[in-house]
Amino acid sequence: MSNNKKLYELHAGVCKAIANPKRIEIIYLLMEGEKNVSELAKEMEASAANVSQHLSILKEKKVVCARKEGLNVFYSICDPRMVEALEIMKEVMLEQLSELIDVSQEILAEEK
């Protein structure tokens, strides 16, 4: 397998890890600072077990990092560029939605 193909597979793995609304929510919550599972679960209105499963996937792909303090494990964003990448994708998506709204409004105006 070529180096590029290996890189594409790694890239796809990270994209797959963040391709979940709950995981994206976790990333945005961790932008505010490190949090433990209980804090995240409360803010997300989700079970601690479910949040832990999502954090495990994000941690495996090095999207989030863990720091143990006593009995608690605190999670944070490993690399702020991951948040920047999500923000860029969100901006592109919002632009596309805006274009769809404009086209829809034009079509509806022509129908009247």
List keywords for this structure.
12% strand; 5 helices; 2 domains; 112 residues; 3-stranded antiparallel β-sheet; 3 strands; 71% helix; alpha+beta; Arc Repressor Mutant, subunit A
Ends apart, CA distance between termini: 58 Å
- What top-tier CATH class of the largest domain fits best? Mainly Alpha
Q: Number of DSSP helices?
A: 5
Unreliable stretches covering 5 or more consecutive residues: none
Mean pLDDT: 94
Per CATH, what is the topology of the largest domain? Arc Repressor Mutant, subunit A
**Chain oligomer state:** single chain
Shape: extended
Listing every helix as H and every strand as E from the N terminus to the C terminus, the arrangement reads HHEHHEEH
Task: Tell me the count of domains.
Answer: 2
Could you characterize the architecture of this molecule?
This protein has 112 residues and is an alpha+beta fold. It has two domains: 1-78, Orthogonal Bundle (Arc Repressor Mutant, subunit A), CATH 1.10.10.10; 79-112. The protein contains five helices and three strands; from the N terminus they run ααβααββα. It has helices at residues 3-18, 21-30, 37-44, 48-60, 80-111; strands at residues 35-36, 64-69, 72-77. A three-stranded antiparallel sheet has the order 1-3-2. A hairpin with a 2-residue loop joins β2 and β3 (72-77). α3 crosses α4. The protein starts with a helix and ends with a helix. The model has no long low-confidence stretch (mean pLDDT 94).
Quick gist of this model?
The protein is of the alpha+beta class. Helices cover 71% and strands 12% of the residues.
